[in-house]
Amino acid sequence: MTSHWILGPGAIGRLLAHSLSPFTDAILIGRRALPEQQHLTTPEGEERIQRLASFTAAELTSHPLPTPGFVHITTKAMATEAALASIADVVAPTTPLVLWQNGFLAQPRITQTWPGPVLCATTTQGAYLTGDDGVVHAGRGPTFIGDLDNQHAGLEKALAALLSEAGFTATAVSDIRQRLWQKLAVNAAINPLVALNGVRNGELRGDAYAGRLAAVVKEVAAILKQENIAPPNGGEGKNAWLALVWQVVENTANNKASMLQDIEARRPTERGAILGPLIDSAERHGLPCGVLKELNSELAKLEAEF
Ligand code: KPL
């Protein structure tokens, strides 16, 4: 049976392990050991308990396992490359990787350097951890899988079929680059503002924030045009991006965004993977990015206090 290693046992990693386990070998890999008995609460409130195999990267070095069919990396964006380095000596370099990160930082870098197929996944499944042995699947959402050079359609279809059998609604797509940048654009408009102001997403609708949000979207829309990322929903320019952002704010009004959760837990944020590629692109193309840079340095200042 093809085994799936899941590197990074956070909320999405553990949800993936719970979902795949009944169908294939799924092994969680983290920096520390986890209890074998793991609890999953479904969106309907049902409680399920499963035994999930988990190892540390150090254990895999001293007791190697057969090389896996897929390695999923489900760490935060800035930890992706270090996580891959921690197992690179114990997997075949032709092993397919699946990168589940937000933003657009690790994906192009690893696509250039890893000899095997590098697939990217973007998901709107909602999940959060309740401790070392529990994860809550808070809401279902679609998952898309593709690769940046469109070279692995067969592999992506097979993986999407397995994931769909396992309860993810997964689709193989040929436009994953567009989708990753689109999610990044929405994250860039919402996450820094709510994280810096300590507010839930819906509060961005108030007068205190709406102007700054529109200023972020204006810079982002111009950058995405240069990156050949089409405006969402067949719309035109800045207004289409603004409409998408307001729609997500509306749909997630009660959410504490992931970046706000990071700030509250005094963890580094994913600003490097979300704002970083936008600022780099703006500088490459000679576009204004003063608002994005301001948000980035305000976040950096906060993180420096942790
Ligand atoms: O994806 C999100 C996040 O929290 O990172 C948004 C869209 C901002 C919803 O909360």
The largest sheet is:
8 strands, mixed
State the order of secondary-structure elements, H for helix, E for strand. Answer: EHEEEEHEHEHEEEEHEHHHHHH
CATH architecture designation of the largest domain: 3-Layer(aba) Sandwich
Distance between the termini: 44 Å
* Rg over alpha carbons: 19 Å
What proportion of the residues form beta strands (DSSP E)? Answer: 15-25%
Mean pLDDT: 96
Name the strands of the widest sheet in spatial order. Answer: 5-2-1-6-7-8-11-12
Alpha plus pi helix count:
11
Features:
12 strands, NADP, 19% strand, single chain, N-(1-d-carboxylethyl)-l-norvaline Dehydrogenase, domain 2, binds ketopantoate, oxidoreductase, eight-stranded mixed beta sheet, alpha/beta, Rossmann fold, 306 residues, four-stranded mixed beta sheet
